[in-house]
Amino acid sequence: MIPLTLELTNFLSYRSPTVLDLDGIHLACVSGLNGAGKSSLLDAMTWALFGKSRSKSDDDVVNRIAAHHGEMAEVRFDFLLEEVRYRVIRQKQQGRTSALELQMAVAEEEWRTLTEGGVRATQTAIEQLLRMNFETFINASFFLQGQADEFTTKTPGKRKEILADLLSVNRWDRYRDAARARRQQEEMAQAGVDARLQSIEEELAEEETRTEELAAARTRLGTVQEQLQAQEKLLEQMRRVETALKQQRQQVQNLRESLTRSEGRLLKLKQNRERRRQERDTYRELLAQAETIQAAHAAWQEAEALYQQWQEKAEQFHRLQRERRPHELALERARTRLSQRQSELERQQARVAAMREEESELAQTVTRHEEALAKLSTRLEALAAEEEAWHQARESLQEHLSQRKLWQQELEQLQIQARRAERQQAEQEKVRQNLEEAQLALARLDEEAQALAKKRERHALALADLNRLEREQPRLRREMDKLQERIQKLEEEAAGACPLCGQPLTEEHRQEVLAGIRAEGSQNGEHFRENKTQIEALRGEVAELERAIKDAGRLEREQQSQQQRRATAQARLEEIERALAEWQDGGPERLATLEQKLADDEALRAQQAEVERLARQVEEKKGLAQRQQEQQKQLSAAEARLAEIRRAVAGWEEKGEEALVGVRAKLADEDFAPEAQEALAELDRQLATLSYDESAHQAARQTRDDLQEAPDRFQQLKQAEAAVKPLDDTLADLDQQVGEQEETVATVQAQHEAAAAQLESLAGDEGDLRTVEKEVTALREQEIAVHQQVGAARQRLAVLDALRTQRQQQEERRAEISRRIQRLKLLEKACGRDGVQALLIEQALPEIEEDANNLLERLTGGEMRIIFKTQRELKSRDALAETLDIEISDGVGVRPYENFSGGEQFRVNFAIRLALSKILARRAGARLQTLVIDEGFGSQDPLGRQRLVEAINTIRDDFARILVITHIDALRDAFPRRIEVEKGPAGSTLNVV
Question: Does the global pTM surpass 0.70?
Fold first, then answer.
């Protein structure tokens, strides 16, 4: 991918549309002050391609001023990929989703869209086109500010993680995690199977106990059923007596409730009669005040009519006042506008008076500057010929210096190669010796591995025998116990029936049976003791074999270490032989030729003297040109000011004076807003005609408010007149109802007393029914419980057959799970950091080391070389540990990275970082054609900066586009092209020099 053009609008510090044309630029420096917007150009590229930048969110990339006005940020990025031109356009408005377009050039200014259905799909298309995602692109093409040492300053373990991320080998972490999760699931399943097997064994051991429990439960059931039948007969007899008693109680209760209801109704009738009597008396008192109430009501009606007349006038008055307000405001606004216009014209009159005084002085100044410019132009024309000769001499000197510089660079490279060849010749024998030692160690380790394999086989056989014997011992013990019990029973029965089978048994026959049983017991005892001896021996052997097998991990690690050692030595030996052959093919002859050419510098010194002589003569021209520019600027400023004054004076004389006189006249005569003045006069006439008196209005309101209770009192009087006669009729009816209800209460009370006497006589025959019911209920519950016990005992006994089948199935399942767990453990280890990932990193490290050392030799004149160490010996034991240490060799010896100065560390960082970029691009399937270095020179001394610039020039042919961002002024002229970035009030701008 080669950048061509970059157009930014409202992006970060770039406000107005800004275009960076990189077409034709091979190596350029992006310079400017800190914060000017240099790194924002890189952010624009990554944001356009991937939607990501140093900003935390997309909203942050929108220029703050543009975001405030609702404008959107836009970046248009054109790039060349495999000789085809593409364009990416990304837009973002704050608070809204971004828009993304992908286009391909098919002809001059003719584009074909490649945009997919959405932003995410289009983003995927861009990454597939580039064959890189954001992380790969940044790590491959960009040396971002502050990230050059991200790899070297980390711990060895963190370096491996970073390298794994860069090489994308950490995808194996997902496979390892998947294997671990699957293994954990299988182990949980195995634990469940083990728990189930243990539970099954515990239940099978209870078979005899469960048989006894079933017989006991059946006996208890029979006893409970007999007791229940007897109690149920007694309960039925007592319930018949209880029924009759319950009916009589219900009758007494009904009569008691009827009596209570009758008494309550009587009480309510009396209370209602008293309320009606009080209500009638109140109405009669109100009728006695009828004349007073009617007179107050008539006075209230008169006051209400007067108040409504004043209320209508008040509403008309307030409406006319509201209509006056807009016209008053219009009149005031017109007066204010004229006053402001008068003030403005008076200020303009004062400015024109001051400009007339300044005009004559500026005319003299213009004349002086024109005379000075004429003299400077004459002198500059005289120096033009000398400057042309100086330019030609300097170009000739530059060509000579460039040629010698190329010779010097080639000479330094050849000297580095010569020193490298000497070191490689010395290293060749050491590598051969290391290879032989690794092969011998591998042969020894193979023998140990074969012996360990035999021990593993023996361990498996011994463990199987041990398990078989340990399972057989309990069976032999039970059989010996049973034989001993039979012997005891036979010895106790001297004659009669056999205690074992019930058949007649003679003394002779008894002795024969005893002899047979004792012989069988002796045989089992001997077998038991032999098994015990074998078990002890096998346990010792198994423990010894397990201790030996535990050493397998160390043996495997040593084998891997030696295999890696052998592979590294073989690869290094081939590399050394190939490098020595390349050096011998013309290297020494070319080195001698270059040394001779560089030793002859007589022509160079002569050319330098001529350039210095001409430069002194041309030096005067620079000062004269600067003075000419200053005079021209002063002349232009004076002429511009003079023209501005003349235009202002002419404009005032033409229109300003007349306008000021007119405004003053209008204000004096109040000649403004005539419509508003006429409307106000008409409204004043209407107000005078209305004759509204606010105090009279308030007095009418007060009179009406003082009589506000009169309407309510009049309404109450009307109600009293209508209610007295119905209340008299109601009271007569209530007196009759009270007498009738008193007779009903007396009748119900007599019936209740008779029923209560009959209930008392029946209660003497009632037995303890509740106690019998509780006993029957308890017996029934006991019967149910015993039934459940019988069923449970029967079920617990029947389930043992199914458990035996389940035990066999669970044992087979456990064996299968164990096999899967072992396989998953191997897979987990293989996918881990010390498995496939380590192998992939080991394969990439030699390539990274070679690329880094090639560049580092250019940066340091062959004085420094990088060594990656992937293993180190443990101090606690004789073994190797995985690591990723960085050691650097120089003229003093081999030292860790941390022991070098800041400038030396940066050169190492630069070399490693560029090597990582190359391999990352190759692994991604893309070519590394663009390199961007952001602020990488701050820690370098002058010599280090010069070497870094030379190294960039050395690798420039490896890239189609190289951009170097720096704020150091001394480095700007070290590059053939320069992109200057400045930041002003209107935002950042750029200029290509």
Answer: no
